[in-house]
Amino acid sequence: MTRKWLVIGVGLMFTFPILLLTVKSFAFDWSWGELWPSSFQLANWQTIFRDANIRQALLLTISIGFVVVALNLLIGIPAAKALAFTQFRGKALIDVLMLLPLFIPTLAVVMGLQLTMIRLQLTNSWYGVVLVHLIPTVPYTIRILRSGYERIGVKWQEQAQVLGATGRQALFTVELPLLMPSIRAAMYLTLVISFSQYVLTAIIGGGTVVTLAMLYFPYFSSANEGILAAFSILFALIPFLCLALLEGVVRLFMPVLKR
């Protein structure tokens, strides 16, 4: 019984703020001290979607997030497989170097990196922002996928090769399906980190690349709590919707890639 109430309490602790924000985003004339709004309307959501800056920032944020996810998987899958199954000199040093972006302050890293990116003419552009978003995401992706490879081991791949499967067939019929839980976790974490980057985007993007994270702070200072609640719900829902879209793409193209 105690465990049941503990689960209920923890569930309410996480769901109540979300429910409160949802009600607040549709509420009209909800004064302090009132238990429930007097009426509901869509004005707060209409205000957000009528803002051309938000629409542009939304599309740019999703585009950058998808590219960052794709690059993370292209880098992370072979790197994680090599670190999981291959022994070579300097492997321990690489493990340490991969953790450095997670422990060194982001501002210190990006201020030093900005000079290099200015020389390479990568600042004030979305592809420069994509590259700088790899710094806080790739280490997490490699560690998640490495754990996935270590979990499944090599026996399934060896069995596929014994049965005559080519390297590509083993990859798409055995390796990636078994690795999908880790891939999903890596994709979602990458999306959340990329969407929430403010400092990296502001410095490298130079104010030209405007994402939702950069618009959140002006909205946060807004006196209209309903608009702020609607913007917060939108900002929180985007990673889930993007992950569902990525899942659909994976399920659509995986049978084709197996051939």
Give the tags.
259 residues, mainly alpha, MetI-like fold, 11 helices, 2 strands, globular
Short structural summary:
It is built from 11 helices and 2 strands; from the N terminus they run H-E-E-H-H-H-H-H-H-H-H-H-H. The protein has 259 residues and is mostly helical.
Per DSSP, the total helix count is 11
In the sheet with the most strands, the strands line up as 1-2
Alpha-carbon distance between the termini? Answer: 52 Å
Classification by helices and strands? mainly alpha
How many independent structural domains?
1
Low-confidence regions: none
CATH-derived topology: MetI-like fold
Order of helices and strands: HEEHHHHHHHHHH
CATH class: Mainly Alpha
Strand content: under 5%
User: What form results from the Cα inertia axes?
Assistant: globular
Radius of gyration: 22 Å
> Overall mean pLDDT score?
79
The CATH architecture assignment turns out to be Orthogonal Bundle
* Strand runs, count: 2
Name the helicity range. Answer: over 70%
The biggest beta sheet, please? 2 strands, antiparallel
CATH superfamily: MetI-like
